[in-house]
Design goal:
alpha+beta, Immunoglobulin-like, eight-stranded mixed β-sheet, 10 helices, 38 strands, 20% helix
């Protein structure tokens, strides 16, 4: 197909959506507004149309992909005026070909068309990314107010068939009508997969027309999604369609794109196989020094992994194809920084230099992506690279140095439970599952000895933690000034009331990755004990875990947890001389497979021993568990209101 034909297709797509606009002029603005204001009295706007149209065809001896997104948005309230600011994004893999944007302003019984004339292109910077090739075209829709409509059609040229988009069947406002249309040349094979569409009515039609197969999905009356705290990414619960090219049948050859995981790996391996072919004397010398007195292979792996964690700074890069090709290990070594691929590259090279060959570059998706290689063998599944070490057959240790504080043997928390694609040579690969670290390995433990001094409590605390709780705490403490470190200690260990003060503390094993973090501290809580006549009242529930975590009955999205964990806390209160126990509350507990707590009181060697243990045993709490969670919250909050009573003898 010629360049002219390519342009014609783009014009065709724009004209296709301009047909919607032409029809809009004859509609009565007041009637349309009243109709939808009545239907959506509490919504700021409604999408009357949300349509994506994709043409996948040949342009001479390559594949061309044009993707047009069209939205017709009706404004219902003054709050919706903020939606006038629009952005269209593009990157190395998708370039904007055309933007057509107008506001339909009510003008009597018809609309008046006002076209956007000014567009401004800017570089975008994603959170946590040092360099990003993402760009945006910014524009403001004119004369936006209630009753007005904005109609925007954006056409993009997708440069690589591996990087098609997804179509979401919800939005930040309700949708009256949604349609996805794929017009695909018969010699190009595609596949698709539906996610979270069980609760919507989604119609599908497939037909042949000339040299094309047309796939069409339509849905009506779709709910808006609500942004909720501690929710996973939208792709975990929003209904959407993922579509992708699997094979291209050229006249004289066939190109497999995503028929299977083998096709994806073949592409990844081709990008990475030309890296680290040259030796680096300085890097080799470092490896020799790190491992010279170590005979055990696994200890060598650990030493190299820890060196990269401590000496190579993680800096994220997203720059076209460079976002998929690992940097040379020598470059990362000399610069002392790298993205996930660069850090994996240097770990893999250093291990090979140490004579350890059973290590593999590994592609993986973080938990922000819910997809599996077995479902969709495309780059949509992964966004990260690590190294996998295989000490014995069937045993894998995942090395992710982007997390500077994770101990050897722990994957970074963000890849737990995810499929990993191991590159085991140019022709071989393996998909295996990263384990979820059990809660007993992610613990915090605290023991506190308390005594009463006037109305104050004076105490000594001993805290220890391992696994992810230690790593997270080390991340926060490491590098703080003494002043800010003490402020952190006050916040982290706070107990009882806002008159809690850490007087002094000592931190042990902060940067010893294979040892538990230990913190000893002395503290006081002023005006906490309540004296009434000859009785003392003290609430031993000084850390009220979960107390404010009741789940809203209207919540729709699941709740994400960084890692499984358990906390074991004990408080020993010295019974003052001349006093005895008048009242100890009843014990309380709640346990199931996903979460629970235990509260116990007992007298022990002239002290009251208070035990408070709790745990979370999930990464994702699904909606069917919300009612049971709230039941636990009700019970634990009842227990938190209990107090002990000491009485003069």
């Amino acid at each position: 197909m010629s360049k002219n034909n390519f342009i014609v297709k783009g014009i065709f797509l724009i004209l296709f959506f301009l047909a919607f606009i032409a029809n809009s002029f004859s509609q009565n603005p007041e009637e349309i507004y009243n109709q939808y204001k009545k239907e959506f009295p509490d919504k700021m706007a409604v999408l009357l149309e949300k349509n994506d149209n994709i043409i996948i065809d040949f342009e001479e001896d390559t594949v061309s992909i044009l993707h047009t997104e069209y939205e017709d948005l009706l404004f219902l309230t003054e709050r919706s005026v903020g939606l006038a600011n629009q952005k269209a994004y593009e990157s190395y893999f998708s370039k904007i070909e055309e933007i057509d944007a107008i506001t339909l302003v009510p003008n009597g019984r018809k609309y008046k068309k006002m076209k956007v004339e000014y567009f401004k292109k800017e570089k975008e910077s994603s959170s946590g990314i040092f360099y990003d090739d993402l760009e945006s075209t910014n524009f403001i829709m004119p004369n936006v107010s209630p009753k007005a409509r904005t109609q925007v059609a954006i056409t993009q040229n997708i440069k690589d068939p591996r990087f098609l988009s997804s179509f979401y069947l919800d939005s930040y406002v309700p949708i009256k009508s949604a349609k996805l249309t794929l017009k695909v040349n018969k010699n190009i094979e595609i596949a698709y997969k539906l996610f979270n569409t069980e609760n919507i009515k989604l119609d599908f039609n497939k037909k042949e027309k000339g040299d094309y197969i047309i796939y069409e999905w339509t849905a009506k009356d779709l709910e808006d999604f609500k942004s909720e705290d501690n929710a996973p990414r939208r792709n975990y619960f929003s209904p959407h369609i993922v579509y992708y090219v699997t094979q291209i049948n050229y006249p004289n050859r066939t190109q497999k794109i995503a028929k299977s995981v083998a096709d994806l790996y073949d592409w990844y391996a081709d990008l990475s196989c030309k890296v680290n072919l040259e030796e680096d004397a300085a890097l080799y010398k470092t490896v020799q020094k790190l491992t010279e007195n170590i005979t055990d292979e696994q200890e060598k792996v650990k030493a190299i992994f820890y060196w990269v964690q401590d000496n190579i700074k993680y800096i994220a890069f997203e720059d076209g194809m460079q976002g998929f090709i690992p940097s040379e290990a020598s470059f990362v070594y000399s610069k002392r920084y790298g993205d996930c691929k660069g850090m994996s590259s240097i770990i893999h090279k250093m291990l090979n230099m140490a004579g350890i060959e059973n290590t593999y570059l590994t592609w993986i998706g973080s938990r922000s992506l819910p997809y599996k290689y077995s479902e969709i063998p495309t780059p949509i599944v992964d966004n990260h690279m690590i190294v996998t070490y295989q000490p014995t057959e069937g045993e894998f240790i995942f090395l992710d140095a982007t997390d500077s504080y994770s101990p050897f043997g722990f994957p970074s928390s963000m890849i737990q439970g995810k499929e990993a694609l191991l590159g085991m040579g140019r022709e071989n690969h393996k998909v295996t599952l990263v384990p979820i670290i059990e809660k007993d390995k992610n613990y915090s433990k605290e023991s506190v000895l308390l005594s009463i001094s006037d109305k104050n409590l004076v105490g000594k605390g001993q805290y220890s933690s391992e696994g992810y709780p230690k790593g997270y705490m080390t991340h926060y403490i490491d590098g703080l000034s003494k002043e800010n470190e003490k402020l952190y200690m006050n916040r982290y260990f706070t107990k009882g009331n806002n008159k809690f003060f850490v007087d002094d503390y000592k931190i042990n094993n902060l940067n010893e990755k294979d040892k538990a973090l230990n913190i000893d501290y002395n503290f006081r809580i002023e005006d906490y004990a309540k004296f009434v006549g000859d009785e003392i009242y003290i609430n031993m529930n000084m850390e009220k875990a979960f107390s404010n975590d009741e789940i809203d009955k209207e919540r729709k999205s699941p709740i994400e947890n960084d890692y499984l964990f358990k906390a074991d806390n004990s408080i020993f209160l010295q019974i003052p001389e001349g006093y005895e126990i008048e009242y100890l509350p009843e014990n309380s507990n709640f346990e199931n497979d996903l979460f629970g707590y235990n509260i116990e009181y007992k007298k022990e060697d002239g002290k009251i021993k208070f035990v408070h243990n709790y745990y979370k045993n999930y990464l994702l709490l699904k909606n069917e568990s919300f009612e049971e969670w709230n039941k636990m919250i009700k019970e634990v909050n009842k227990a938190y209101r209990e107090v002990i009573i000491l009485k003069k003898k």
